[in-house]
Amino acid sequence: AQSVTQLGSHVSVSEGALVLLRCNYSSSVPPYLFWYVQYPNQGLQLLLKYTSAATLVKGINGFEAEFKKSETSFHLTKPSAHMSDAAEYFCAVSFLNDYKLSFGAGTTVTVRA
Amino acid sequence: DAMVIQNPRYQVTQFGKPVTLSCSQTLNHNVMYWYQQKSSQAPKLLFHYYDKDFNNEADTPDNFQSRRPNTSFCFLDIRSPGLGDAAMYLCATSRDTTVNQPQHFGDGTRLSIL
């Protein structure tokens, strides 16, 4: 069955440290992949998307994600965390036979001063 | 700026009293979606419109209905809200239904049931 999994429901990092959020998908054919961020009491904002043009995708706010087909992964990283990065992050996929988004369970990021 | 606007941001209604949530968009997108998001959970798709064509998810309760009178507006109607319907309701749009199209979200309406 096709699915998307985010490892780690909570991640806590120090300000200035690396942020790494993990996303894995299960599908025989690589899907289209997205990362969204949700700040408290707001909607989801697109951070970046993978559409097979390049395996390393750069997004907004200094985030980037790397697609690794061999690992069926699309992990999100940011080299240096800022207090404003505290939010909920969702990995989402569109499988080739269904344009609707399937969301991971989300990862809450807290940033320590 | 082109955007997706949801009104109101916060809505309180009584148990069993019908309520309508509103969404408008200036993106001129063909597809409009409604999601329900409960605390600390991922958004759950309720239904969507492609132009005037309504597409309901199989597990969406009959209590939830939607209307799209024109391209710009879409409404979510909850006919008889129960306590379990308290949630954030998110409206989203996409240009079309090709698989690589990102969805653009509004800021949501937080619904409370008394």
Quick structural gist:
The complex is a heterodimer of chains A (113) and B (114). Chain A is mainly beta and 113 residues long.
Description:
The complex is a heterodimer of chains A (113) and B (114). By secondary structure, chain A is mostly beta strands. Chain A contains no helices and eleven strands. Chain A is 0% helix and 55% strand. In chain A, the strands form two sheets. In chain A, strands 2, 4, 5, 9, 10 and 11 form a six-stranded mixed beta sheet that branches. In chain A, strands 1-3-8-7-6 form a five-stranded antiparallel beta sheet, with no helix packed on it. Chain B has 114 residues and is an all-beta fold. The model of chain B has no long low-confidence stretch (mean pLDDT 94). Chain B is globular. The termini of chain B are far apart. In chain B, strands 2, 4, 5, 6, 9, 10 and 11 form a seven-stranded mixed beta sheet that branches. Chain B has a four-stranded antiparallel beta sheet with strand order 1-3-8-7, with no helix packed on it. At the A-B interface, strand 4 and strand 5 of A face strand 10 of B.
